[in-house]
Amino acid sequence: MPTGITTTTTFNSMSTLAMYVWCFLKKGPKYDVVEAGRELGFSVKFFPADDVCQLTFLKGWFMRNPAGRVEWIPLPSACLKIGKLLNDPCKIVKTVTIDGIRRKATRGEAIRVCAFALSQSYGCIPDDYPIFGAFLRVMRKLGLSEEELPKHLQESWKPRLSSVSVSREVVLDNVLRRYGITVQEVVSVEALLESINFLPALIEHPVFELLCKRDYE
């Protein structure tokens, strides 16, 4: 079964709920969730928190905006998986319209159409949102827009934001707290992203390794 689809979240949520019900009924309210999960065959990653802004959900985290309201926004590490496709781009994008002429897409054009469509999939992520905002901006700027394709790649199951009012400064503080990544390192990786002038492109930066280690290992 492929990962990153609706059933992943559904099955994981159902399994977690069933584990908690079993723990409560069999162990009582004072149970060790990690040990109880192990008895059921689960490998539990449990991070107790006193504040919702210390929690993650659906590869995103919660931040307070200037009005004090809590908003969900994607983790910066979303940039590591946004390009994961279940099919070769050439199988998804067979034709493109260039200068008003419809023709067969080259591999590079197919990749750029997918890049543009995926850049739209999260909705309104501000360009100044640390790391991920710059990543999406590059995909949007260098990708190819095709009217008939984005609906196939925007992935309707994904949380889609209509607005984000959390400040860059608040996110940068949390990036340092969660990943140990400094403001200077964020600016450095964003400058690297801005230096890309053509897609597809391959880049490396220590920040990507830190994001991966914290959120995917």
What's this model, at a glance?
By secondary structure, this protein is mainly alpha-helical.
How many helices? The count is 9
Q: Report the radius of gyration as a whole number of Å.
A: 20 Å
**Major sheet: arrangement of strands:** 1-2-3
* H/E topology pattern: HHEEEHEEHHHHHH
Q: What's the structural domain tally?
A: 2
Q: Into which percent range does the helicity of residues fall?
A: 40-55%
Coarse morphology: globular
- Please give the largest β-sheet: 3 strands, antiparallel
The secondary structure category is: mainly alpha
User: How many β strands by DSSP?
Assistant: 5
Strand content: 5-15%
What number is the mean pLDDT?
82
Roughly how many Å apart are the termini?
20 Å
Low-confidence stretches at least 5 residues in length (pLDDT < 50)?
none
List its salient traits.
2 domains, two-stranded antiparallel sheet, 9% strand, globular
Describe this structure in words.
This protein starts with 5 loop residues before the first helix and ends with a helix. It has 2 domains: 1-46; 47-216, no CATH class. It is globular and about 70 Å long. It is 44% helix and 9% strand. The chain has 217 residues and is mostly helical. The strands form 2 sheets. A 3-stranded antiparallel beta sheet has the order 1-2-3, with no helix packed on it. The protein has helices at 6-27, 33-39, 89-92, 107-119, 132-142, 150-153, 168-179, 183-194, 206-216; strands spanning 56-57, 60-64, 70-74, 95-98, 101-104. It is built from 9 helices and 5 strands. 24% of the residues are buried. Helix 4 crosses helix 5 (132-142). A hairpin with a 2-residue loop joins strand 4 (95-98) and strand 5 (101-104). The model has no long low-confidence stretch (mean pLDDT 82).
